[in-house]
Write a structure and sequence with these properties.
Elements: E1 5-7, E2 21-25, E3 28-30, E4 33-36, E5 43-47, E6 57-65, E7 74-79, E8 84-89, E9 96-101, E10 105-111, E11 119-125, E12 131-135, E13 138-143, E14 157-160, E15 175-183, H1 189-198, H2 212-221
Antiparallel strand pairs: 1-15, 2-5, 3-4, 4-15, 5-14, 6-11, 6-15, 7-8, 7-14, 8-9, 9-10, 11-12, 12-13
Length: 233
C-alpha cells in the first residue's frame, strides 16, 4: 500500500507530493526532523489544504517525546473547519497514547516509556468508522463507538504538533517528529507491522540533540522534569 502523501521534513515544509506547509512560532526543522520543544510558545506545522478526501484512511507517524509526563499533545492530525482526528496524548492520563476527535477520545492503557528513540504510531479508520491504534506494529486500542470523522471537503489539512490549529493553545506537543504519512485506505495489522519493520522514512538514523538552552527552558517550565534525547552513533 502506497501513502497518498507524506512529510519526512528532509525537504523542509513541502510534502512528497508538493503540498506546501507553514511552521508556526517556535516550530523548526533541523536535521530532517520537526522540532517542537519550547513549552513556553505554541509551535506546530500545518499543511496547505489537501486535495484528497478521507473516509477509510490511516495516519502513520514517528515521534519522540521530550517529556513522558505531558498531556494532550497532538502528534499528527487531519483537521478541517468543522472536525478533526488526532493521533495524540491523552487529556487525562500523562504519557498515554490516544486518538482524539472533535467530539470524543479513545484512550489507551499504554503509557509511553521511552524518550530516546522515535516511536512508530498508526491510527486507522475503516469503512464502518472503527478506529484502531497501533504502537510499534502492535494493536493497543480499538473503538467502534467514536464515529471517526469523514473528511470530504477540500479544507482538510495535515497538522503536526497540536491536535488541531483551533485548539493549539491547550494541545501543544513537546518532542520531535521525524515523518508522517497519510493513506486513503485502512492499513491492515500486517501492513502496519511491515511498515514498522521497514522504517520507510529512515527515522532511526535521524535523531536530533535537544539544545542545552531548550533543556533548561523545558525543565523549568515542567517543574524540574528531566528531558532526555539520545543521538545514535
Amino acid at each position: 500500500v502506497t501513502a497518498i502523501d507524506s512529510w519526512d521534513f528532509e525537504s523542509g515544509t513541502t510534502s512528497t507530493n508538493g503540498v506546501t506547509g507553514t511552521l508556526v512560532n517556535r516550530a523548526v526543522i533541523q536535521a530532517g526532523v520537526l522540532h517542537l520543544v519550547d513549552a513556553d510558545t505554541i509551535g506546530y506545522f500545518k499543511s496547505s489544504p489537501l486535495s484528497y478526501t478521507f473516509s477509510a484512511y490511516s495516519m502513520e507517524v514517528w515521534v519522540k517525546l521530550s517529556l513522558l509526563s505531558q498531556l494532550s499533545g497532538g502528534v499528527m492530525s487531519l483537521s478541517s473547519s468543522s472536525s478533526f482526528l488526532s493521533l495524540a496524548l491523552s487529556d487525562t492520563l500523562p504519557g498515554h497514547w490516544a486518538v482524539v476527535t472533535s467530539t470524543n477520545i479513545l484512550e489507551t492503557s499504554f503509557q509511553e516509556t521511552t524518550t530516546d528513540v522515535f516511536v512508530h504510531l498508526v491510527a486507522t479508520v475503516d469503512s464502518s468508522r472503527v478506529i484502531r491504534l497501533y504502537r510499534e506494529g502492535i494493536l493497543i486500542a480499538t473503538s467502534s463507538s467514536l464515529a471517526a470523522p469523514v473528511f470530504e471537503t477540500s479544507d482538510v489539512s495535515a497538522v503536526f504538533g497540536v491536535q488541531s490549529d483551533t485548539q493549539a493553545a491547550t494541545t501543544q506537543l513537546i518532542g520531535e517528529i521525524c515523518c508522517g504519512r497519510l493513506y486513503q485506505s485502512t492499513l491492515s495489522a500486517t501492513q502496519v507491522m511491515q511498515s514498522y519493520r521497514d522504517d520507510p522514512c529512515g527515522c532511526v538514523s535521524r535523531q536530533f540533540i535537544v539544545s542545552d538552552q531548550d533543556r533548561i527552558r523545558i525543565a523549568q517550565k515542567m517543574d524540574g522534569a528531566v528531558v532526555v534525547s539520545t543521538q545514535y552513533s
